[in-house]
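Translate structure to sequence.
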């Protein structure tokens, strides 16, 4: 039955009951009694309606399906419909709150910063990455104008010009950010920030690497090409001179070969596809072999000793060998004749440690932090004399990173250097 019809039938029934009561009173007690009963009945009906209107008004001030009053007569249908509407509204609000929570959680997990603003740049919401990028605080800055919070001329000019189709490159808080504003709806805008600091640094390292590698390869190629040109132009060149030229070309060719091998090694170590091989490394056997190789390289010019008192470790034998022999080779190259080189393997509470200690020329403090950079040399002329490629310590650095170890360098010019490799506790090594 239609709700409106139910309402009118219910109202007519109540009016009929009131009039019937008045008619009965009129019949038994006279006109006055009948009129009084009719008036009382109408007053009761009005009071009931006013009571329910008051209850409805109170509920509208604080709507909740749990506290909706029960009705009588037509009010039963009214409150029933209100209950259904309120329940539907509460369900929609719960779903909306759930979706909003999911949206904020998803935005919080994004690697980019997200800021939601109104049409006049007042902050409504931002994720933690945006707080980090732009120095915002959701707890303290909500409702404030973003242009008052990010005070850089480039950003303010970007806002004033309104050319949002072109992203802004912004240097802010020691970061390089790509900022993009996306208008949506009629009164809201999204500001997205992408941190390119690390990618810029990697690009710069790549450019420097290519430039340095090209420079390192150019010298031996120039020497080889020069001697080949002399040999071509002077076929009757003296045998002794030709032999000297051949020897120099061979040395330069070997230098290029070492450089290319080191570059390939470094490239392999940096590759995510090249995982560390899981194996147990017999450190006693490995260090004995390295000591013998060091003695051959030294050719009796240094006193080389080995102290062994540590456990085996896990990882790649080839990679660890490469890192340790690079440290030992450097010590031999930069230690004068009759100098001492100590190789130490010992166990500590924080894990086993390998130490190469020499009495070489030493390194000034300002150079130590940059020693593991590719092609970085303290003394370029001396590095060429010692036949170094400039990539040895960079290889050491990447091997140790892959084995969760770290390198500490201590050095005093004219006294000597100490290169310490701290490995993790063997049980905690992850490969």
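Result:
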């Amino acid at each position: 039955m239609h709700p409106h019809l139910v309402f009118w039938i219910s109202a007519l029934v109540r009016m009929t009951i009131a009039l019937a009561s008045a008619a009965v009173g009129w019949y038994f007690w006279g006109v006055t009694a009948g009129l009084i009963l009719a008036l009382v009945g109408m007053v009761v009906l009005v009071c009931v309606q006013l009571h329910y209107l008051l209850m409805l008004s109170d509920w509208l001030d604080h709507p909740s399906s749990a506290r909706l009053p029960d009705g009588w007569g037509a009010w039963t249908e009214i409150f029933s419909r209100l209950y259904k509407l309120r329940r539907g509204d509460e369900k929609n609000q719960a779903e909306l709150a759930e979706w909003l929570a999911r949206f904020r959680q998803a935005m919080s997990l994004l690697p980019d910063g997200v800021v939601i603003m109104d049409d006049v740049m007042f902050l409504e919401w931002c994720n933690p990455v945006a707080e980090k990028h732009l120095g915002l605080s959701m707890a303290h800055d909500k409702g404030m104008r973003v242009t008052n919070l990010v005070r850089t001329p480039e950003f303010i000019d970007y806002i004033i010009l309104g050319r949002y189709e072109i992203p802004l490159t912004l240097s802010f808080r020691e970061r390089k950010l790509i900022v993009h504003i996306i208008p949506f709806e009629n009164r809201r805008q999204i500001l997205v920030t992408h941190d390119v600091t690390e990618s810029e640094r990697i690009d710069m390292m790549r450019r420097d690497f290519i430039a340095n590698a090209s420079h390192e390869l150019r010298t031996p190629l120039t020497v080889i090409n020069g001697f080949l040109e002399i040999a071509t132009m002077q076929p009757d060149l003296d045998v002794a001179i030709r032999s000297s030229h051949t020897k120099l070309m061979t040395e330069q060719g070997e230098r290029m070969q070492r450089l290319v091998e080191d570059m390939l090694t470094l490239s392999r170590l940096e590759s995510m596809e090249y995982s560390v091989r899981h194996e147990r490394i017999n450190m006693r056997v490995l260090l004995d072999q390295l000591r013998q190789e060091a003695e051959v390289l030294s050719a009796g010019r240094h006193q080389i000793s080995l102290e062994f008192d540590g456990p085996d470790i896990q990882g790649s034998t080839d990679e660890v060998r490469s890192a340790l022999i690079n440290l030992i080779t450097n010590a031999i190259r930069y230690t004068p004749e009759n100098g001492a080189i100590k190789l130490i393997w010992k166990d500590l509470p924080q894990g086993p440690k390998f130490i190469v200690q020499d009495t070489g020329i030493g390194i000034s403090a300002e150079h130590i932090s940059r020693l593991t950079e590719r092609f970085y040399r303290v003394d370029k002329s001396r590095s060429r004399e010692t036949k170094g490629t400039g990539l040895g310590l960079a290889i050491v650095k990447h091997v140790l990173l892959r084995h969760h170890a770290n390198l500490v360098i201590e050095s005093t010019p004219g006294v000597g250097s100490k290169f310490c490799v701290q490995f993790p506790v063997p049980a905690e090594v992850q490969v």
